[in-house]
């Protein structure tokens, strides 16, 4: 249930920010949830709306253009 709650909170925070939450996902291990976004501004807005809604750490990260192990 905690992961499902975190995923629901992420989807709701995205929707509240005017962002389509369709790509809210859980990692393969189930340890984290994430939502790829276009801009850092969108990410910061979603993070701001998540504060106080979930237990655990909330952070943003930039994706890599190429996976380092594929080189």
Q: Give the low-pLDDT segments.
A: none
Number of strands: 2
Helix content: 25-40%
Average pLDDT reading: 92
- Roughly what fraction of the amino acids lie in strands? 5-15%
- Ends: how far apart? 38 Å
The largest sheet has its strands arranged as 1-2
Can you put this structure into words, describing what you see?
The protein is mostly helical. The protein contains two helices and two strands, in the order αββα. A two-stranded antiparallel ribbon has the order 1-2. It is globular, with a radius of gyration of 13 Å. The N and C termini lie far apart (38 Å). The mean pLDDT is 92.
In short:
The protein is mainly alpha-helical. The protein contains 2 helices and 2 strands. Strand 1 (25-26) and strand 2 (33-34) form a beta hairpin.
Write the layout of secondary structure elements.
Layout: H1 2-16, E1 25-26, E2 33-34, H2 40-50
Antiparallel strand pairs: 1-2
Helix pairs in contact: 1-2
